[in-house]
Amino acid sequence: MIRIGLLGCGNIGHIIAKNQNGFSIIAVFDQIEGRADELAAASGALPFTDFNAFLSAGFDIVVEAASVTAAQEYGERILLSGRDFVVMSVGALSDSAFCEKLVTLAKEKGKKIYIPSGAVMGLDNIKVGQISRISTFLLRTTKSPRSLNIEAEKPMMIFSGKATECIRNYPKNTNVSEALTLAAGHEVDVELWVDPEADRNTHEIFIEGEFGDAYIRVRNVPSPDNPATSYLAALSILSLLKNLDNPLVIGT
Known about the structure:
The protein has nine helices and 13 strands. By secondary structure, the chain is of the alpha/beta class.
C-alpha cells in the first residue's frame, strides 16, 4: 500500500481522499488550518500547517493538488526529503530553469517526478515527438468568457501563439499546454477561444508528423463540487496512484 502525503486540501484533495484505492493518505498539508483539519478528518490522515513537520510524517510520495505557486515553493524540498513527487499544477514547470533544477535533483536522489494526464487524453503517444519529427502541433482551447472574466457575445479567439506566450498572458491556463509541451519535447502552438454558449472547457489537439496525424477532442465535465476544476483532471491523479505499484505498465 503506497502511503501518500497530500499537499493541498481543496476540491481535488477531497476527491483523492474519497477514493483511496491502492494507496492511503497518511498526512495532509495546507496553509489554512481549517482546510487541513477538515480533509484530515475525512481521510483519516494527520493534518499539518507547518511544511517541515509535514515532511516528518511517514509517507512515500507527495501529491501536489494545490497551485503552481505551491509546486514551485515546495518542489525542491520534497525531492530533497527523498520522496517521489506528483505534480498536478504542471504549469509550475513552464519555468524552464525551475524544471531543469527539479529534474536534476530527482536524478541525484533517484526519485521520480510524475505528471498526471490532467484535463486531456493522448499524452502517452504524443511522447513520440521526443524521437520523431512533428510538423504540426496545436492546442485549441475553448472556454466560457466568464471563466476568464471577459465579455463576449459570440465565439472569438483571444490568443494565438506559442505556449510560453500564452502562459505569460493567461497564467491560469497553463497546465494543459505545458503537459503537452513536456510530453512531446516540442512546444505546442495555442489558440485560446471564448464562446458564450460553452458549458464545458473543450481542448482540441491537432498533431501531425512522421507517424501520421491525429485529432483529439476532450470536453471536460466540471468537478461536482467546484466548477473551476476538471473532473477528468482529478480522475487522472487517481488513475496514476492506483497503478504506481502495478507490475503491468500500459501505454508508452
